[in-house]
Amino acid sequence: MTSRTPADVPAADDRPLGSARTDAERAVESVLTGIEQWRGRTLHYAPVTGGLQNSNWRITVSGNDRRYFLKIPGAGSEAFVDRGLAHEVALRAGALDIGPEVVLFDPVSGVEVVEFLEGYRACTNGDLKRDDIPRAIVAMHRTLHGSGLLGVRKTMLDMVDEHCVQAAGLGLRLPADWPVIRGEYEAAKAALLASGLDLVPCHNDPMPGNFLYREGHPMRLVDFEFASDNDRAYELAILITEMFYDEQRTLEMVEEYYGHTDFATVSRIRVCGALADVKWGLWGCINSRLNSSWDFDYHKYGAWKLMRARTVMSDPRWGLWLATL
């Protein structure tokens, strides 16, 4: 990839190693000084916005023909992330040409360095309302799904069950209607298990910033911290849920991925979408206790997700969707 200036020339807002002013900058400098292959080089860094758990930085290294993206795991993220698995999936995505090349990974700290994709930008919610970008995302997912199982099964059911245990262990106060949501979740879990799960390697995290776009170039998929072998319907369902797609767009997305639409498939997408809200609702509530380093209202996020799950579970079609699985 090319840029307007040489890749080893820092931008005006980059900071040189040794000039840290904040705790975050001191943390990134501590990481940079420990990277053996960059010892003796002139290093500059600048923050990359986005993400809810990790600290992200663009790194410029003197004498190198490209820049780098550095990710430092956030406090408490080890409760949710299998760093070794995330690294394995990142390597696979790079080999499949749907993700950036992985340059360095520290299995102890979870610090990861990948190529900085020049000219690319993180997608926005507005981008995912277009016709072309959601279709390109589905194509990337289809490529990943067809690459063979990872050997680490963590379905949406496993995720919710894990979060239930974590929430109980922390003594979290969940919304008053949580017992109702939990009961409907158990009914959905039983129906999905009875139907049989269609396991494929999934990304599991459709935050718009995880999809990178550059006009005239293939899209790229990043951030594999929640990847696992999961039901393929969940991957599409969580994208549809996160983007508030209406009935018509939902049917179009199902057609794009599966090549057909039928009531049973759409029912599975609807049920998995509700479970996605349960999973991320609990995740938010748990993070409100574990992560205080980010200016983000995790509890409000989590409570809202659980409220939306309850709304879907109150739909008159909910029982029919479960019976159709």
TrEMBL record:
Domain Aminoglycoside phosphotransferase: start-end pairs: 45-259
Basic and acidic residues: compositionally biased ranges: 12-23
Cell membrane among keywords: no
Stretches the record annotates as Disordered: 1-23
InterPro entries to which the protein is assigned, alphabetical: Aminoglycoside_PTrfase (IPR002575), Kinase-like_dom_sf (IPR011009)
Key words of the record: Kinase, Transferase
Pfam families from the UniProt entry: APH
Recorded GO MF terms: kinase activity
Name of the protein described by the UniProt record: Choline kinase family protein
